[in-house]
Design brief:
alpha+beta, Immunoglobulin-like, elongated
């Protein structure tokens, strides 16, 4: 797994001087160069106090060269160390890492919730085995992927206008609404945080819970669903047998668990054709 470096902070790097065959590289000097994920050079420097017997090189990259563009929550980097040997050959050692935001889950950039808020919603679920077993970096990666999947779903939200503001029917579903009312179709992926926060609280809660439920599935919290998706209809272990329904529940980009949280808001376009 790639290592992470926090954006806008200086960072120290230590790279072992080992070639592709695992042999130690013995050099007399070394320099380095940092590239962005498009292969464009960002900065370069010389390894000071180079010690040929150390078997590694250590140097620091300034905060100004470990930045992210506006709207980015992470970006890949390639680090190349050039080692000059006594025979005046130049060998290369490469390393890869991610520059990540101080807040890797950014509201309406790659998540509906911050990581801290996700922990609060976790307390509402009886069991999230995949989430609970995963380290923090994998949890946040799964939350970002869950956000992308949920953004592919079409929603109709009671009490919402196309600009994301409330109407007088914003309390639909809370017991205080004035009868059946379907609001506007909402395009979640294009919303700003302000527009999202103006949506009815019941919808925002549902989609935040759905994001956590989907992340749990992505982290392995639904082994039966995974087997069903793979086309497995039965499984026998010893004298015990299990049978899975092979027919998918809906052709949606999210899991059954996530769908259960948002199903009353999902806009389904049904077509009828003649045979």
């Amino acid at each position: 797994m790639l290592s992470n470096r926090t954006a806008d902070q200086p960072s120290k790097f230590t790279l072992p001087l080992v070639d592709v065959d695992g042999s130690t590289i013995v050099g007399v000097s070394a320099s380095w160069e940092l590239f962005d994920e498009q292969g464009v050079s960002i900065t370069a420097g010389v390894v000071t106090d180079f010690d040929a017997s150390a078997g590694s090189v250590t140097f620091e990259i300034d905060a100004e060269h470990l930045t992210l563009a506006d709207g980015e929550v992470s970006s890949g980097r390639e680090l190349v160390v050039f080692v000059v040997t006594a025979e005046d050959d130049q060998l290369e050692v490469r390393d890869y890492f991610l520059v990540t935001s101080r807040t890797p889950l950014s509201i309406m950039e790659n998540s509906f919730v911050s990581y801290t808020e996700a922990l609060r919603y976790r307390a509402e679920f009886a069991s999230l085995e995949g989430w609970d077993a995963a380290p923090r970096d994998r949890q946040m990666a799964a939350m970002a992927e869950a956000y992308r999947r949920l953004c592919r779903v079409s929603f109709k939200v009671p009490g919402a206008n196309l600009d994301g503001t409330n109407t007088d029917k914003a309390n639909y579903g809370t017991g205080t609404d004035e009868g059946w009312f379907w609001g506007s179709r909402v395009r979640i992926s294009t919303m700003t945080p302000t527009q999202f926060n103006a949506l009815p609280a019941t919808f925002r809660t549902a989609i935040k819970r759905a994001q956590l439920a989907e992340a749990n599935v992505l982290l392995g919290g639904d082994p039966v669903g995974k087997k069903r998706d793979q086309g497995i209809v039965s499984e026998t272990t010893g004298e015990s047998s299990m049978f899975f329904q092979s027919k998918p529940y809906l052709n949606l980009p999210v899991s059954r668990q996530a769908y259960e949280e948002i199903k009353r808001y999902v806009f389904l376009k049904v077509g009828v054709t003649r045979g």
